[in-house]
UniProtKB/TrEMBL annotation:
PANTHER family: O-ANTIGEN TRANSPORTER-RELATED (PTHR30250:SF11), PST FAMILY PREDICTED COLANIC ACID TRANSPORTER (PTHR30250)
Compartment list: Cell membrane
Organism lineage: Bacteria, Bacillati, Bacillota, Clostridia, Lachnospirales
Gene name, Swiss-Prot/TrEMBL: rfbE
Assigned GO CC terms: plasma membrane
Organism: Sellimonas catena
One Pfam family per UniProt: Polysacc_synt
Name of protein: O-antigen transporter
Length: 426
């Protein structure tokens, strides 16, 4: 009975803290994303979908520099501040600084899109039209993470779901009538409406208190520096996925191959959503215990054991159901993506079990520079392995390269987290 009572109390506690709001919201977001993944490849031709993948890949290289990562600092430093006025001051500083940076990046990216040569010439127009989107995305993300930093889990979940629903509905409806141009218009509409929703939700959380204490000059430098380091860390990790598409388009030079790989790679976002929701919930609590390494290591081990079992079951089911998933979402014309998707699921298991949890905890407790070093080395090694594998084995080679890098880099992160926690207890 004692064990049962402990479980009941644990469930009640995380319910009160808003864990189930985040899980339910994340689940609904993935259901909606399923709908998008099913319709866009069906609405567009294989060639047009390949061009969209190419355009998004180029745009995502620029999006990695968005506001120089200062949204990461919004979450970290707002959680650490004690008073509402100080939290609001950090948020306003990050919003102002990020907008200035993004205006400069907007001008630079626009010049590049107008002057550069692209593999598929139709992509220039689409890139120019999407060049202002990162500014709006930054505003939305900064508002979203500020809500999370205030532990407003209900409002955070409503906003996340609203954004995803609007994005999918707007893209699909306008893609049917206007193709890729409609998708671009749909993205602008979805982000703008989501910003309005975020402002309304934030007002309901903060009430009438509009006072703020702006961070000191030294604190501003810390916030900006943390944002840049986190940006570089996330960039070096994310760029591995972008490099896959770049290398595939460079070596294979085929729009349909890009479309097939994109279809297969989408399973990564589906398979990892539970882990992402858990990290969203637990991250602020690990930040609050930044000086209690014993607590951090103890709870990391608990979460890791639960995560391993849950991810193992999820990934085995997804590997078994891969043919059905392809048939349901994309149709028979994408059956050649089945073996690639299965190999990517093996990579996904390594990402979920070995990389995501320790990587985020290390960033939360001040080890973001170590993450940066690991990810930079991983990025370089991945580029080399990916090029060799794609040159010899085509699309399958790209998936194998991810497996190698995810597992080795994840194990290194876990060992470093253990060393950091053990040293502080001596």
């Amino acid at each position: 009975m004692k064990r049962v009572d402990q479980v009941k109390n644990g469930i009640r506690l995380i319910k009160e803290k808003g864990f189930f709001h985040i899980i339910i919201s994340s689940s609904l977001v993935k259901v909606i994303s399923f709908i998008s993944a099913m319709f866009l490849p069906r609405v567009l031709s294989k060639t047009d979908y390949g061009v969209l993948v190419y355009v998004d890949n180029i745009r995502n290289y620029f999006l990695m520099f968005n506001a120089l990562g200062i949204t990461n600092a919004t979450l970290r430093y707002c959680v650490q501040e004690e008073s509402e006025e100080e939290k609001r001051g950090v948020f306003l500083y990050s919003l102002r600084k990020g907008l200035i940076i993004d205006l400069i990046l907007f001008i630079g990216s626009l010049i590049f899109f107008l002057c550069a040569d692209f593999q598929f010439q139709s992509s220039r127009l689409y890139l120019v039209l999407m060049s202002a989107l990162p500014i709006l995305v930054f505003i939305y993300e900064d508002l979203q993470l500020y809500l999370r930093a205030l532990f407003a889990n209900r409002e955070y979940s409503i906003l996340s779901f609203s954004y995803s629903a609007l994005m999918v509905i707007a893209q699909i409806v306008l893609a049917i009538t206007s193709g890729i141009l409609g998708i671009i218009g749909g993205r602008y509409i979805a982000v703008i409406i989501s910003i309005v929703v975020a402002i309304v939700l934030l007002k309901s959380v903060e009430g009438k208190n509009k006072k703020f204490i702006y961070p000191s000059k030294d604190k501003q430098k810390q916030i900006f520096k943390f944002g840049v380091v986190m940006m570089l860390t996330n960039m070096s990790s994310y760029v591995m996925q972008l490099n896959e598409t770049f290398i595939l388009s460079w070596v294979l030079n085929d729009e349909e191959d890009l479309a097939v790989y994109k279809v297969a790679a989408y399973i990564l976002t589906i398979s990892l959503f539970v882990m992402q929701a858990i990290i969203t919930f637990i991250f602020p609590y690990f930040i609050k215990h930044i000086d209690d390494k014993k607590w951090i290591w103890k709870n990391f081990k608990k979460l890791s054991a639960i995560n391993f079992g849950g991810m193992l079951i999820i990934h085995i089911i997804l590997i078994w159901c891969t043919p059905f998933i392809i048939w349901l979402l994309y149709g028979e014309k994408y059956y050649d993506a089945i073996p690639i998707m299965r190999i990517l699921l093996v990579a996904s298991f390594g990402q979920a079990v070995f990389r995501m949890l320790p990587g985020n905890i290390l960033a939360g407790i001040g080890e973001e520079k170590f993450n940066l070093r690991v990810n930079i080395i991983s990025m370089i090694v991945h580029f080399i392995i990916d090029y060799v594998c794609v040159s010899n084995y085509g699309l399958l080679g790209s998936a194998v390269a991810l497996i190698i890098v995810y597992y080795f880099s994840g194990i290194i992160m876990i060992l470093h987290l253990r060393n950091v926690c053990k040293k502080s207890q001596i």
